[in-house]
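[Automated response] Your request has been received and processed.

Submitted sequence:
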Amino acid sequence: MPNPASGSDHGDWAVLYQPADFTDVDPAAVTWRGKTPSAALVDAVYRIVEGDGPIHRDVLHLHLGEVLYQPKLNAAKKRLVDAAEELLTDEGRIVEADDFLGLDQPWQ
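Generated structure:
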């Protein structure tokens, strides 16, 4: 049986996702209350886009959950993450195209 971690089940084109390591993001600083994202959450979203971008929005949700020890973000938490993405986009710090986020758009 092939090793699922090898990517060989998907052919030579498959590349395993290796998230960047964020050891300085403090999960305790992120608050999940309210309708606007905390500054710590905005910073965490930016750091992941900076390290892993271009990154699909769904993958961002997964990776952010891993980094913040929230293995499954519920709908309310995803809305806060999306609000942080929107804030960063409005500020011009990240760009979004077709549900992908990055610091610029070299992928298009």
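Summary generated for your ticket: The two ends are 37 Å apart (CA to CA). The CA atoms of residues 19 and 63 lie 7 Å apart.
If you did not submit this request, please reply to this message.
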